[in-house]
């Protein structure tokens, strides 16, 4: 399974987990959904970069490398979204438990879907 397909699977699981978390008022499920959305972004980014012949090894510098490479190939807007997703989904929500309100979280779900579609297209 390639990275774009993995991104789609992460996304689908995140949506299900978020809905369950909202229904059950379960913060842990919501935070886990947030991390799965972040996983979808990372996989989509890796898939996009791979199409351009760029491999980012999983290490401490991977996020910096992804942002840098997105800029180098002329996708600064995707770099901005990548950074935003990392801050809100991975950092604020998953790690620190400061998840956005439902209406904003749902907007992030939609934005991640568009990000994956763009990664597949570019």
Helix content: over 70%
Distance between the termini: 19 Å
Question: Radius of gyration over alpha carbons?
Answer: 14 Å
State the low-pLDDT regions, or none: none
- Number of E strands: 0
Shape: globular
What is the typical, i.e. mean, pLDDT? 97
Number of helices: 5
Q: Helix and strand string, N-terminal first?
A: HHHHH
Overall SS class: mainly alpha
The largest β sheet comes out as:
none
* Residue share in β-strands: under 5%
Description of the molecule:
The mean pLDDT is 97. This protein is globular. It is an all-alpha fold and 122 residues long. 80% of the residues lie in helices and 0% in strands. The protein has helices at 3-24, 27-51, 62-72, 76-95, 102-121. It contains 5 helices and no strands. Helix 1 runs antiparallel to helix 5 (102-121).
Brief summary:
This protein is an all-alpha fold and 122 residues long. It contains five helices and no strands.
Supply the key terms.
122 residues, mainly alpha, globular, 5 helices
Describe the secondary structure blueprint for this structure.
Blueprint: H1 3-24, H2 27-51, H3 62-72, H4 76-95, H5 102-121
Helix pairs in contact: 1-2, 1-5, 2-4, 2-5, 3-4
